[in-house]
Design goal:
Layout lengths: L4 E6 L3 H7 L3 H6 L8 E2 L3 H5 L12 H6 L2 E8 L18 H9 L5 H10 L4 H8 L5 H13 L5 E4 L2 E2 L3 H6 L2 H7 L1 H4 L2 E6 L4 H8 L5 E8 L7 H4 L5 H14 L4 E5 L35 H11 L16 E3 L5 H17 L7 E5 L7 H6 L24 H9 L3 E4 L3 H4 L13 H16 L6 H6 L4 E3 L19 H15 L14 H23 L3
Parallel strand pairs: 1-3, 2-5, 3-7, 6-7, 7-8, 8-9, 10-11, 11-12
Antiparallel strand pairs: 4-6
Helix pairs in contact: 14-15, 20-22, 22-23
Protein name: Membrane dipeptidase (Peptidase family M19)
InterPro entries: Metal_Hydrolase
Organism: Algoriphagus chordae
Length: about 525
Amino acid sequence: MARKFSDLHCHNHMRAHLHMQEKREAFEKKDEFSPWTVISSNRAGYVKGKMGASYSQCDLVKAWNGNVRLTFNSLYPLERQFVLGLDKINSVDLLNIAVGVSTHHKLPLRDLIQTFYMRIPKQTVDYVQSRNYDYWESLYREFEFVLMDSGKTIDCNKIHTSGVIRRIFENEKKRRTKFRKELWAENARYLIPESKNSLEESLQNDNEITMILTIEGSHALGTDLLEKGKISITEISKRIQEIKNDWQVPVFFMTFSHHFNNNLCGHAHSIPDKGKILLNQIHNMNEGFSDFGKRIVLELLGLDNNLQKDPKLGYRILIDVKHMSACGRQEYYDQIIRPCLAKGDKIPVIASHCGFSGVKTLQDHIDCFDKEKDDFTDESKKFNAWNINACEEDIEMIVKTDGLFGLSFDQRILGITKKNKKSKRNGIELLWDNIEGIAKSAYANPNLTDAEKSKVWKCMTLGTDFEGLIDPIDHYPTVLEFELFSNNLIFEIEQARKNPKAKHLSHLKSREDTEALVDDFCYNNAEAFVQANYPR
């Protein structure tokens, strides 16, 4: 039987939605307004494994043909800082100043950059730059978009080729025949489960993608308006209740912080040095929770101020700590997770699309904030040591709470530096280094019992961040390479378990055991996690 795959964090609909959202009527007339529609992309970028902007990494057609049967599809209203110019040029370098000034959003070069780099139509860029753009409204538009075809079996998908010249010179039928797995799906179907019962039915159906909804960034609730006094915290709370009570399907977890200030909790440093010329994420970066943030995170979890479950607050939306600053994670664990765990309320910690930092504690991360330059690594030189990644303390909390770690496929997040970008390590070796690093950290952790240490293998899965404009690991640029990845991973583990000192692999007695472990990582762990924690 073909190996199934899951992905704890991806954006299956993102490319289609961003491309079509401002021209909905035109796409509806052509019967193309659907999450299944493939926006024809640049194959050269795909073949070379370049940054995932010119091509799709995980659209629904690729997911279907790549045997992805469980996807945690993240709704993400694009943060406006990505398309706005800097208010203040934080540089004395003349080149940086020139670039910063010339790429202000009021000048055409900025729109040109966004259109060609992010492959977002100019109409969408203009809308996000405008005063009319509203995160909450955008979130709901995304929600409606992914819900529209849930539970429907399509005969076949549509393919949209942008640009008059491409439509003249490219034959869609020939491309569809030649690159069938990339462009074409028949009798395909996905379902967003409304309840645990429908979840179980969907998971048992291999002819259906089970789609779990998540949200990336609490800014999606419209929290940017708190700073301007244009919304009250009470209104933000009402929006959470609207999601819980009025949305037809549940939201499983929320990635609480993202790249920029949300007025609730500080975000981890995430933008590389060269990106600072265009983007400024300093405001509230690496800070902890605000008073508003503490209130909102409790309401998402369905807890009152005494950390007691409150039925009036509705079902529990879990918290994803990816992008949350080390200060924020420290507060979250100390003030919520550990106290709740002590009294029997185990709240799973999720780190949905991370790398391993190789750092021991969150305090170590905090002490090294000012060292986070592009090639900042841990002592072993293997891992990206920025606090956006998970340290040993994070892994301990994930294991103790039966949480889940999703392995990103972003090469920079996983530890590729400028020096080794073209090296052999930029492949399965890099991914295995991170997986093994996590396992070794758990087995060496004195705060974990022997039973807990072995549980670490049930707490890891794929969390690629595909369609999040990442620069993917060489050889695995899309979900279509998952099968190749899994076979390569089996080979790596088979080699590693021959070492008698590898205590973290001592439970693997045969190749069959190794294949079972890889099956768990690629699918079974994520399935068991959603079965245990789906809210309705």
